[in-house]
Design brief:
This protein is α/β, with parallel strands linked by helices. Helices cover 40% and strands 14% of the residues. The strands form 2 sheets. Strands 1-2-3-4-5-6-7-10 form an 8-stranded parallel β-barrel, surrounded by 4 helices. A two-stranded antiparallel ribbon has the order 8-9. The longest helix has 21 residues.
Length: 288
Amino acid sequence: MLLGAHMSISGGLHKAIERGMEAKCEALQIFTKNSNQWKAKPILKNEMDEFKNKQKEWGDFIILVHDSYLINLGSPKEEDRQKSVNAFIEEIERCDQLNLPYLIFHPGSHLGAGEDEGCAKVSKSLNEIFNKTPESKVILLMETTAGQGTNLGYKFEHLKRILNSLKFPERMGICVDTCHIFTAGYDIRSREGYEDTFQDFDRTIGLDQIRAFHINDSKKEFLSRVDRHEHIGKGFIGLDTFRFLMNDPRFESVPMVLETPKGDTVKEDEENLSILRQLISNANKKRP
């Protein structure tokens, strides 16, 4: 399994890879800029070189990028939506600069305009983005959400509706967050519930669209529609679900990254990754 975690870029982009190496990650997720700011300084050549050199040292593993939390492609306010489109294009350009294949994003929030209108706005925004980045090789991964507030994407049907309205669907994929789908109402705690959920996803969208997972337990209960991540096995989801996922051959080549709470070190990530690896059956282990 390609297991890893989200790592801070504090001190430089390459520092995220160093932290990932320390935690024995085989996949990473990073921001390429401050996630709570609209603008970012350009990536300098020496920063890019340092990052790529460290990447070669680490190995041929996948680095995922998450976009800024400020971006809302579903905003009903045209000025805000356009600002988000422009910021998202900058995110894509930074991924292309670093030669990173996937950019994960939340669909957006309808802010009271309604889910149908919100999904239509997200599709409109993505089509604009595709038209303005025709040479980009970055695949955009829409993330499943918990449905907090007016957030879109807590139903698989939302994602399907958006995908079906795109001019370039081949430039899209899905990132499934275990905490989010659980609190959104997909009960993955039992084997039956786990299988039903992914059968539903397959019928609605197609399992081949899943390009990444966020592996998080939940601080909040089932159907709470609240997004609060917890350490593996210490939340309302529990260990069984992660055992199912760690041994599911359909996802053995899909990168899976933690977004669980952490301090200033990678200790918590190491502990969570160790738990996940222990859940992999001996028959499915590819290496010690």
